[in-house]
Amino acid sequence: MNSNVFLLEDLQVKESNPFEIYTLEWLEENLQNQFAHLQRQDRFEIIWLKSGSGWHSINNYQYPLSSRKLYFIVPGQDHKFQIHPGSKGYVLSFTESFLHQNHDDFNPMHEIVLFKQFSEKPELAINTEIEEEMEDVLIRLLKETENYFLHKSEILSKLLKIFLIYLKRQMQASLADVQIDPHNHLLNNFLYLLENNFRVKKAVSYYASELFVTPNHLNHVIKKNTGFCARHHIQQRIILEAKKMALHKDASMKEIASYLGFDDVAHFSKFFKNAAGANFTSFKKNQFGALPS
After folding, report:
1. Is residue 102 part of a domain?
2. Would you say 197 and 204 are in contact if contact means Cβ atoms under 8 Å apart?
3. 3-state secondary structure of 184
4. φ, ψ of residue 45 in degrees (nearest 5)
5. Going residue by residue through the chain (293 aa), what tens digit of pLDDT does each one get?
């Protein structure tokens, strides 16, 4: 392998670290001699190449990397990228659950759809008028990852949301030229139904019936467009609501289970632990602690 080429194939990120941000300079300095085939699954990634060159491979299709552009990867894609020495920029990596947390004022499912639209046109030229503002957000993200103060996770997720808003503003015009898969209509209808029925309807078969397709077809289309099957989205929407309710100190597990349509508290407890990665009591205790490093 040419030692003058910096190769990184999927940053290896611990499951306990749902959000990561690196500078390309740091990656080159610390990983330039490793060249390991590092794997990561089910994460979103944004690469911002401020200056330099290289290439980016998604599902074996290779794209050239150019200065002052962002590149997007969604869960389920195989990818790797090469950056030539001296390149400058950033890499952001985060899980779907991190995208969901700490946001009461927006529907994170729409962010997942947005990332799918990003992947249809996997590069975005940066508007020079707001480039400095966007980089300021990333600098704040880098600084926040280095501290151990309270509410670290909340601050990181809010800053990430601000950065995504900047991206959506710039993507708005360019998306008009993107040929969107017509199956996205099915995806959008599914998300609409889910938002209005998740408390009482938890079976994929219900949503498939309402949309006049088979469950297998619905799962195929949803996974193709988001990287996750329909059942996963149903579970995540339920657990998102459960987490929001759990932030209220007086809300008991029994009350939340009943509100979300679970007749059996034990069933809800098991569901919560499997979907959230922690039992209900531990989640409430640790909610305002620092993000694990």
Report:
1. yes
2. no
3. helix
4. -145, 145
5. 444 444 444 455 444 588 999 999 888 787 654 433 444 456 788 999 999 988 877 766 677 888 988 988 877 677 777 888 889 999 998 887 787 765 555 555 556 656 656 655 667 888 888 899 999 999 999 999 988 888 888 899 899 989 988 887 777 655 544 444 555 678 878 888 888 899 999 999 999 999 889 999 999 988 887 778 999 989 988 988 888 788 776 788 999 999 999 999 999 999 998 887 788 888 777 654 433 33
Distance between CA 43 and CA 37 in Å, rounded? 16
Amino acid occupying residue 120? E
Domain carrying residue 266:
184-286
CA dist 7 and 82 (Å) reads: 5
Scan for tokens 């880098």, then name that residue.
142
The CATH number given to whatever domain includes residue 245 is: 1.10.10.60
Strands of the 88-95 sheet, one edge to the other: 19-23, 88-95, 43-51, 69-73, 123-125
**Domain membership flag for residue 88:** yes
Tokens of 195: 């938002």
Q: Which two three-digit tokens encode residue 267?
A: 């069933």
Nearby residues of 206 by Cβ (< 8 Å), 6 or more positions away = 197
Residue 32 shares a structural domain with residue 171? yes
Instruction: Show which of 143, 175, 207 is a domain's final residue.
Output: 175
Which of 19, 158, 167, 171 has its CA nearest to residue 96? 19
Assigned token pair, 202: 């938890």
| 71 and 168 belong to one structural domain | yes
Residues β-bridged to residue 22 = 91
The pTM for the full model equals 0.60
Position of tokens 């998604």? Answer: 58
Within-domain flag for 130: yes
